[in-house]
Amino acid sequence: MSVAIALTAHSDVAGHFGKAAVFVIVDEQNREVARLENPQGRAMGCRHKKQLQQALLAQGVTTLILGNVGQRSLARLLQAGLTVIRVPARSSLAAVLNGEVPKETLTEPSQGRPCKREKGSCGCGCGKPKGAVTAKIGMTGAAIMTGLTRLGGVKL
User: Fold this and answer.
1) Residue 101, Cα to own-chain centre: how many angstroms?
2) pLDDT of residue 68
3) Which residues contact 77 (CB under 8 A, 6 or more apart)?
4) Residue 2 in contact with residue 60, Cβ under 8 Å?
5) pLDDT at 135
6) Complete DSSP assignment for the chain
7) Of residues 1 and 113, which shows the higher confidence score?
8) Cα–Cα distance, 25 to 7 (Å, whole number)
């Protein structure tokens, strides 16, 4: 059994799962076993969050401690069998490891933070598909041909 703690670059608990700079993985005796860097911490969309989840599971993580998490990410984490615990964001790593901060076990996706973007607008395929690409001046490729029937008096 190992525990991953989402941290900022200053070793405080990260305010959000997907934006954590690093995940510190500790064992039962609170000894650091590994560090999982999050190079895409500021990336938009859900793809990197899914990759983080897979990397955490590959490290044998069973419990995840974080400051906050979105509803869709929380649903995926819970479905994967992880125990997700929320602590106050910006808590120090030492305070978390010593049990000095209040902990809340998240058991339902509704306990996560609602997504700020409309479902599917992040482009990762988690929601409805993106709309059709509109042709713009200077575009090349097949995308410009959809919906066009005439161009400068020449029938296409």
Assistant:
1) 24
2) 92
3) 17, 53, 64, 69, 84
4) yes
5) 60
6) -EEEEEE-TTSBB-SSGGG-SEEEEE-TT--EEEEEE-TTTT--SSHHHHHHHHHHHHTTEEEEEES--BHHHHHHHHHTT-EEEE--TT-BHHHHHTT-S--EEE-SGGGSBPPSSPTTTTSSSSSSPPPPPPP-TT--SGGGTTT--EETTEE-
7) 113
8) 11
pLDDT in tens, 60-92: 999 999 999 999 889 999 999 999 999 998 999
Task: Name the residue with tokens 């998490």.
Answer: 69
Structure tokens at 124: 């990762």
What does pTM read for this prediction?
0.72
Closest CA to 129 of 121, 138, 137: 121
Q: How large is the average pLDDT for residues 45-56?
A: 82
Tell which residue, 86, 79, 81, 90, has the closest CA to residue 113.
Answer: 86
Contact of 75 with 53, CB cutoff 8 Å: no
Residue with tokens 């010593």: 98
